[in-house]
Amino acid sequence: MNPRTRIFLTMLATLIGGSSLVLYTTITESIIFDNLSFCTSSTADLTLGSATLFTSAIIAGFIATLIVVKDNFVPHIFISLFLVGKLCFAAICGQWHGPLWFETGLHLSLIGGLWLGRYGAVKFPLAPF
């Protein structure tokens, strides 16, 4: 593959994968579960919301992997660094929706789901080579 094409696909996968992750998590937290937070949501909402957030990360990782044609994991590193930066920014500014362990667990599940989506796309039999 041409190096320019590889760089373009890496940037495109990072933008589309990150944007889809932001879109899906926003839809989950704000629309489906009506401002999901540890303090105000029920146990059922927290359980289903956390599972839906994890699924959103899996889908975003899957999409990003299919864009870079399975041979590149750089977009996943950038998206993971974005999630770590978002967590640090929320910690510094005090923009929490619950205890530290809950927010950290949500962000770690997003990172894990992102990489699980990458693994699923690599093992996906119909993915391009």
List keywords for this structure.
mainly alpha, 4 helices, 0% strand, 129 residues, single chain, elongated
Write down the overall geometry.
Answer: elongated
Oligomer: single chain
Distance between the termini: 11 Å
Strand fraction: under 5%
Roughly what percent helix?
Answer: over 70%
Largest β sheet strand count, sense and barrel closure: none
Topology:
Layout: H1 3-32, H2 43-67, H3 74-93, H4 100-123
Notes on the structure:
The chain is mainly alpha-helical and 129 residues long. It is 77% helix and 0% strand. It has one domain. The longest helix is centred in the N-terminal third of the chain and has 30 residues. The relative contact order is 0.17.
Q: Gist?
A:
The protein is mostly helical and 129 residues long.
